[in-house]
Amino acid sequence: MPELPEVETICRELSNLLIGRKILSIEPLRENTIIYNTELIENQTISKIERRAKYIVISLSKGQQLVIHLRMTGKLIFPITNNFDSKYTRAIIYIDNDDEIHFDDIRCFGKIYINEQNQTNDQFAKLGIEPLTDDFNVDFLYQKAKNRNQEIKPFLMNQEIVVGIGNIYVQEILFHSKINPTRKAKTIKKHEWQKIIYNTKNTLLIAIDNNGTTISDFRRVDDKTGEFQNFLQVYGKDNCPICDNKLEYIKQAGRSTRYCKECQK
DNA sequence: AAGCTTTCCTGAACGC
DNA sequence: TGCGTTCAGGAAAGCT
User: Fold this and answer.
1) Which nucleotides of chain B have an atom under 7 angstroms from any protein CB?
2) Going from the N-terminus, what domains does chain A have, and what CATH number goes with each?
3) Contacts of A134 (CB under 8 A, 6+ apart)
4) Tens digits of per-residue pLDDT, A17-39?
5) Parallel, antiparallel, or unpaired for β A22-28 and A44-52?
6) Is A255 a catalytic residue?
7) pLDDT at position A216, please?
8) Which one from A3, A6, A8, A192 is the annotated catalytic residue?
9) pTM, rounded to two decimals
10) Tens of pLDDT along A217-243?
């Protein structure tokens, strides 16, 4: 389940491998995988690959863009080895020198958007701020939260407020910050926001340094796993790593949450 | 308008 | 063993 660090890892690896390569064509293997006109990107050179929120943005020489969201189980696979075979390949990007990039996705939630030259990015219209920038600060969060009745966990996962944080990292961030995920966002004090900001940046940066978290499905482009799962404190755990009490297990807005009611107040 | 729930989808895990 | 049910979850749509 790729969140910010996983998408960042993929973008960096793809950049190293694919800048300057030419896309010949893109072929959908399943309906609703590719949004818009596939002919728009034919015979164009890849000029830049970068992350925005959890989107992979591949910019092309004539200004068009391929914008990819992996959702839960999407993968971009490159290079394709001779014995590679998957029944979940949803699209194939053919590039120069007889190479292919495969878009593989078991659950078919992932999407590839093709944007015209100079087209405003519809996918990005409602996105909030990037958590690794200085805009992600106490004043911003305090203002956004002060009139909200929402719990802090779904608040931090709301991509219209801050982008890139999903169900794994939000639980880690709140654990490190010693904040109970059921607290209302508007009750969070400024010194607590400061802790949340510090732990958000710190957790995401360490995860990026470790190539993301591999929980069952996530793979890097070369099929290697990330390593941050070795650092997880509460996600998928039964007991608190600090006090060893059994972790609470609840649902918030349809998403599972684990937290320690002794250590997180 | 905010904040829920439902939907999309499939494999794994579980229960009888 | 095997079949049916439940669960996992990002984001958009639907609903209250």
Assistant:
1) 2-11
2) 4-124 (3.20.190.10), 138-259 (1.10.8.50)
3) none
4) 999 999 999 999 998 898 878 88
5) antiparallel
6) yes
7) 65
8) A3
9) 0.94
10) 666 776 677 878 878 888 888 899 999
